[in-house]
Amino acid sequence: MPIKNKSTQMPSFVKRFWPFMVLIMSGIFSTWLYYSSDFKLDQLLMSREWQSTTVSRIEETQFNTLGMLRRVEQTSHVVYLPNKTYSRITLMKLFSNEESPLTLHISESGNWDISGGYLLTEPVEFKDITSGKNADFQKQHLTIVKKIFRMDAQQSRRIDIIDQKSMLLTSLTYGSNILYSL
Predict the structure, then answer these.
(1) What is the DSSP code string of 12-70?
(2) Which sign, positive or negative, has the C-alpha torsion 84, 51, 138, 56?
(3) Are residues 153 and 77 in contact, defined by beta-carbon separation less than 8 angstroms?
(4) Distance (Å) of CA 110 to CA 43, 52, 177
(5) Which helix (H) or strand (E) holds 158?
(6) Is the dihedral of CA 13, 14, 16, 22 positive or negative?
(7) pLDDT tens digit at each of 182 positions of the chain
(8) What CA–CA distance (Å, rounded) separates 99 from 141?
(9) 10 Å Cβ neighbour count for 61?
(10) DSSP track, 58-119
């Protein structure tokens, strides 16, 4: 009766199941890499048309740089494309103490990228159309509002996924914004 040495059985076991162990480890590593990388954020951003709504109230101050501006309602629709460009259409309503708002339609396009969980946007082109009448707003007030909008467009924002149809974008300088999809 031959006696098998236990030390020779172990290498035979390892040789037999080595490919399966490598396959399992590869699957675990790939899953971890997918869920911790920017690839998942890329796919989610490109999968839908996103919307956001913002309402800002402006207190009256002694400085008259914004004129009689008291409230801004901003509704945006944005699409992130696979070629790393984006297109955003924004409807911005400017309110003073007068009831009728002044409406700005702003079309913006540019480049986007995700790095380290942050969405980086670089606007390339802006087009705007003003509609409505409100005597409280002068041309210089509208110029300041447009400059603020352009500065806000070029930012880095941290992305936190809430669910498959909503994301929280947190700015490095101030505030947060929720992108949602219907």
Answers:
(1) HHHHHHHHHHHHHHHHHHHHHHHHHSHHHHHHHHHTSEEEEEEEEE----S--TTTT--
(2) negative
(3) no
(4) 18, 18, 19
(5) strand 156-163
(6) positive
(7) 555 555 556 677 777 788 888 888 898 888 777 666 788 888 899 999 999 999 988 887 666 666 677 888 999 999 999 999 999 999 998 888 777 788 889 999 999 999 888 999 999 999 988 777 766 677 777 788 888 888 888 888 999 999 989 999 998 877 889 999 98
(8) 18
(9) 8
(10) ----S--TTTT--EEEEEEEEEE-TTSEEEEEEEEEEE-SSSSPEEEEEEEEEEEEEETTEE
Residue appearing with tokens 């590869």:
26
Q: Is the separation of the CB atoms in 168 and 180 below 8 Å?
A: no
Query: Which pair of structure tokens corresponds to residue 27?
Result: 């699957």
The residue to which tokens 């006696």 are assigned: 3
Q: How far apart are CA 69 and CA 128, in angstroms?
A: 19
